[in-house]
Amino acid sequence: MDPTNNGLLENVEKANELFKKVFGTNEATMDARVLVNAADLGVQKAKQLRMGQGGFDENEYVTRLISKMGGHEIDNEQQAMDWTKVGKIAMKWSRKVPTMDFMLGPMAVEHKMRTMAQRTRVVRDPKAMRKPQELREEDIARQENETTKNVMQINNILEELNRKVNLFELVINPESFGQTVENIFYLSFLVRDGKASILEVDMADPNLGDVDEDSEPWVPAEGANIQPMVELTEVPTAEDYQGGLLKKQMVLEIDMATWRHLIEVYDIRRTLIPTRVSREAQEKGKWYG
């Protein structure tokens, strides 16, 4: 506890050296206890500084400070202390250059008053309120399954023709590119289910691709006029699929330029599949369910 004794500092330095060899929790706990005790002893030693030899005396320090700044009494009048003298002495031992300080924050702070907004209750005028529209059974138009309906329509057209028909003459609608795409889409379901087939037929073949058991198959000549033909077929049975028959759905790409070109090549003036009228034009103002 003697102010001139450095034993506390020596013990702390020795503990720091020993801590390098600490690997277990027990030794770490003991090291922590040493630091706690050293801290407590350091506090007690700081409190007893002026009690020991060569200690710090606050009263003597204040007296000398006042005398250095010229703050002694003359004829019962207290002279003002010159703090610049102390500042010049302290500057000799300071490594920092004196800098100017700045004010942080606004020059004036105005207290914002919180305004309480009063909420007024909304009272609705019963006369201005409108009753929801009541729907009756006759106002609801039952929307049919358009896909199934249009697929069956193409199937019926092929049954009425009862012959092979050119693919493009069947699906192309010269009045509407959109309905041409829809016709190709609906026909693909008949091909997928095996109800219709698309064959490449040589138009010079008198049998148009039909193979007879007694006759030899037609061999197209070089540069023959090959066209895609559509015809109805017998629906495959479960035994056909078990025998290795695979379902194949038609995928056909078409754009407006190709659509116009096909109309000119095949001279398509009317469509075999009638132009469908939109439901909005048929039953305008009705609800769909």
UniProtKB/TrEMBL annotation:
Cell compartments where the protein resides: Nucleus
GO CC terms: CENP-A containing chromatin; chromosome, subtelomeric region; nucleus; pericentric heterochromatin; rDNA heterochromatin; Smc5-Smc6 complex
UniProt keyword DNA repair present: yes
UniProt KW Acyltransferase keyword: no
Domain Nse4/EID protein Nse3/MAGE-binding: 31-77
GO annotation terms (biological process): DNA recombination; DNA repair
Highest rank taxon of the organism: Eukaryota
Assembly notes: Component of the SMC5-SMC6 complex.
PANTHER family xref list: NON-STRUCTURAL MAINTENANCE OF CHROMOSOMES ELEMENT 4
Protein's name in the database: Non-structural maintenance of chromosomes element 4
